[in-house]
Design brief:
17% strand; 156 residues; DUF6194 domain-containing protein; DUF6194
């Protein structure tokens, strides 16, 4: 899978917004070139809401195990929640991985930084994870819609 494939997959969902920070838009330089996906029924950046998925194209400080400094390397990060995290990895987001392994491309892994919040990741998704990526993004999108609806109901 390429980044464009993921962009198209997410864009096929109703009311999604892909935010791609660039130089000069007021975002921190570290975010330039990355993509942040939101459920945004009004078409604008939601306030006080985390993205339901992201694509990062470089190593961040303290987050270098995925080796995103390689040419064309990227990582898809998906907020799946506790149940889906456990279904994918066999342990809960706040539990230690019982069989830690080095990060490999095209494999669903616990997010190196946000696993405890129910995030999984795939470095350089490919044939082995293509179906899983679609399912993970769908579930994260459904969770984002539900969170938006709960928040809207509380405001009424």
């Amino acid at each position: 899978m390429r980044i464009d494939d993921i962009l198209a997959l997410v864009a096929s969902r109703e009311a999604t917004l892909a935010v791609q920070p660039t130089e000069g838009d007021g975002t921190p330089e570290i975010a330039w070139g990355d993509t942040f996906f939101y459920y945004a029924p009004n078409g604008s950046m939601p306030e006080a809401t985390q993205p339901f998925a992201t694509i990062v194209t470089k190593d961040y400080p303290g987050d270098t195990d995925c080796r995103l400094d390689r040419p064309d390397a990227f990582r898809l990060n998906v907020a799946v929640g506790t149940e889906e995290f456990r279904a994918c990895l066999g342990y809960g987001p706040r539990e230690s991985n019982p069989t830690p392994q080095p990060v490999r491309d095209d494999t669903v892994i616990a997010h190196p930084t946000y696993a405890s919040a129910g995030w999984v990741a795939v470095v350089n998704p490919g044939p082995a994870t293509e179906y899983a990526v679609g399912e993970l993004l769908h579930r994260a999108y459904v969770r984002a819609v539900a969170a938006h609806d709960r928040k809207a109901a509380r405001k009424q």
